[in-house]
Amino acid sequence: MLVRFAVENFMSFRESAELSMVASRVQLHPDHVVRPKRRTGLRLLKSSVIYGANASGKSNLIKGMNLAQKLVTAGEVAGKNLPFSPFKLDKTALKKPTRFEFEIKCGEIYYAYGFSMNSKRYVEEWLYEIHRKKERLIFEREYIDQKTIFKFDGLKTKTDSDRQFLEFIGRGTPENRLFLRECFERNVFKDLSYLSSLKTVYAWFDDRLTILFPSSKYAGLEMDLHSDDLNVGLLSTVLNHFDTGISNLSLKKIDLKNDAPEIPEEVKEEVYKRLEEKEAALVSGPRGIRYHVFLDSDGQAFAHKLMTSHLDSDGDEVQFELNQESDGTQRLLDIAPGLLDLLSQDEVSQDKVYVIDELDRSLHTEITTTLVNTFLHITANRDSQLIVTTHESNLLNLDLLRRDEIWFTQKNKYGQSKLYSLEEFKARFDKDIRKDYLVGRFGGVPVIKDLLKDLTNA
User: Fold this and answer.
1) E-assigned strands of 107-224?
2) What is the third-level CATH fold of 1-214+357-458?
3) What is the CA radius of gyration of the chain?
């Protein structure tokens, strides 16, 4: 689970901004709080909803989280510049590093992992195991006097050679690559399997954290249908519940070479080459059409195209291509598999963090509200969390959410974003907080100038 995420000097966040999932003393909606099994643990919230005007910084917060995840799980090629995006409206900030920090809970153990970076290198990187009264340093990396220094004070290795191996990995880590990523690439998790903290933290970024943007597509839907890894009936039920008119989902087998003229021939050739190494690939064409390409038993390349079915007046199914569905339906197809994942009995699925930027994009207000309600209901006894940004003011309801689950972003006159919680305002439970938000009491709404007057006087 996510305990805290902090970002500093990234895009519009000049100063440090911290999103905390630690529950306050609010007594409302106790089922929205995950209670620790140990007395020394923290009470964590299951959801956070972030509001803000356009360009106020709420999406930048998610972009920061997403960038940090990618740097851990994908890294950069040696010698390549890092994606450094500091606050640009202050010349002093351009010379300072960007800083990311995550505090997470894995099982009953808490970790703090973070790093700071500029365009050339990682200036710092650290991992701590956190206990109520103390912290144990697992490793630390610092760039001092044009040299990268590693410390492994808190790591207990079985042999001196194991420690020497870690120190060797540290010395061999490129300046533009995280040590955590280097450990994965060098098979440290396998060779020194007893050092579970490194593997556990990496796995949290790789397996537990899922981030979706408005343009994100659930790339595995076709593959899940092909391999029967997805409960198609349950997904169809979810889509039908939201009144999309879809009665079923299916895959239509086509000959990619002859039946997909919109895919350039050079792209097809590249796909065929990749199929020599992998059994399947996903190809996106224009107008939102996607193909799951695979090799059949004879080694021939074929493709599956995702189709939706609607019932005609006689009750017969009629197939439609995905791009013939509404933007809202396509958005649901990218979000709904995450909800289905939570229904799995798999242990990994019971400890997920879903982050969705602009949840309400292309969705009706009732669907947006129902999605949040459904998440909170189906994860009642699980450690999963949902963090969203939205403009949907109907979620601003203390009958639905707690005060400490509601956050705002606001940008000041210098272009700096600030993140703060509704809990800071101590709003009464009987107050219409939606109305107060819309009139600007909590900030986070656009300050719109008299455009008509300005145009008339121009």
Assistant:
1) 109-117, 122-130, 135-144, 147-151, 209-212
2) Rossmann fold (3.40.50)
3) 24
